Amino acid sequence: MSNETKAPGRIVTILLGIVALVVVAIWLLARLATSGFDVNAEVMSKEAVAARLKPIGESVASDAPPGMRTGEQVYTGICLSCHGAGLAGAPKFGDAAAWGPRVAQGWDTLVKHALEGFNAMPAKGGAADLSDDELKRAVAYMGNAAGGKFTEPPVGGAEGAAAADPAVVGKKVYESVCMACHDSGAAGAPKFGDKAAWAPRLAKGVDGLLASAAKGLNAMPPKGGYGGSDAEFKAAVEYLANSAK
Questions:
Q1: For position 163, what pLDDT does the model report?
Q2: Nearest CA among 182, 212, 199 for reference residue 244
């Protein structure tokens, strides 16, 4: 067979080889561009995506007043968004294997991590207005669901009310935290004992004052930055309110 006859066949072979190389190159580039983006069905579920898009610390409405939510209410309103599906490494609710090593660290360590934040979880799960006792109740609730034996801090009760006398406990909290602003009226805080400044605030009632103070208002952070119990914080609010009546 002459060279003239073989030439068209060689050209076809060369073209096919070029097309194959182009296809392989495109496939390799596509793999490189999408590496690290393997899709996990659980992570990309409608519920999981909604939970990630949900603002940090957003809570489901509850009839309980500030500081009085149970561990279950806090879990359902705040913690569920991550612990329900195990997002970002959070141990799933009721998963004894995942919670076992954490429960073994002890109550104090669990609470410390929840209060200050740990790994991908922000402090208090991102819910700045969550009281320390509410957070502890949620820790106990989740830990116990996975085999722990923790005791939730009580919600209200005569014992807690008696221990938080405004004239004693409230004064102590005021002098340790609140006085920094309320003594001088810094950052717009109503001065201690100033009836004119406190009058419109007292019109809300103690429950209204407590709700505002727990969430933070204007320049004041949630609970005025106080990290103690709800009963102690309430006593401080009552102490301030009583000073201006």
A1: 55
A2: 199
